[in-house]
Amino acid sequence: MDWGNVTAEDLVDALREVDWSSPPRPLSEFFSRFTVPRSSSKWNSRLKCNLYYYRTNYFLLIVSVLILGFLRRPLAIVAALLTALSIAFLNDSFAGTFSERVTRTVRQFSPHLAAKMRPPLTPVIRGRPSSKRAIYICGRPRWMFVLMFSSASFILWFVSAGILTVLWALAFGLLATILHASFRTPNLKARLNTFREEFRAVWRNYSEL
């Protein structure tokens, strides 16, 4: 496979479709041999080949750097969790499951309070339930929880100065990934893996005919 002819869009599509559950490559192989590419075309081909072959290693590298960045700012961890929750609340399934579990937990300690956390009845129009059903979390409209959690996360991001730390950690992880992918010489395993993935893609397209 000629990686020089592979565009960035093709590489992104391949990384979306490929199996990410494969274990990372051994460190002895990951830090085996480094050489300077002879030309820009060689560098372009090597970069794409290594990004595809060592994808799991690069992912773990970036996650590890981000974790180290979060450890320097403990409040940033809470801010990240609140941001993730505010985004997750936009999903109807997650909002309903979260509300149900919280209500069930509160019912064990205070049944009277749990009764107040029930969502209001669905309005009925001409004998049929309204199709525009609002999502409630613990008896309150969903937008209240999204606004509350996102506001709290914004304040924590600002107080902890965590955004700058996370951006620096992400930039460092991406820079380390690009440098490794640029100077790591593709070995025979990488080339064989490329041919195998190419064969699978061709076979999959053939079977769909």
UniProtKB/TrEMBL annotation:
Swiss-Prot/TrEMBL keywords: Membrane, Transmembrane, Transmembrane helix, Transport
UniProt entry tagged with the keyword Transmembrane: yes
Name of the encoding gene: PRA1A1_2
Membrane topology annotation: Multi-pass membrane protein
Top-level division of the source organism's lineage: Eukaryota
Source organism (scientific name): Stylosanthes scabra
Localization of this protein: Endomembrane system; Membrane
PANTHER family: PRA1 FAMILY PROTEIN, PRA1 PROTEIN
Residues that span the membrane, as ranges: 52-71, 77-98, 143-160, 166-183
Name used for this protein in its record: PRA1 family protein
Highest classification ranks of the organism: Eukaryota, Viridiplantae, Streptophyta, Embryophyta, Tracheophyta
Main location: membrane
Task of the protein: May be involved in both secretory and endocytic intracellular trafficking in the endosomal/prevacuolar compartments.
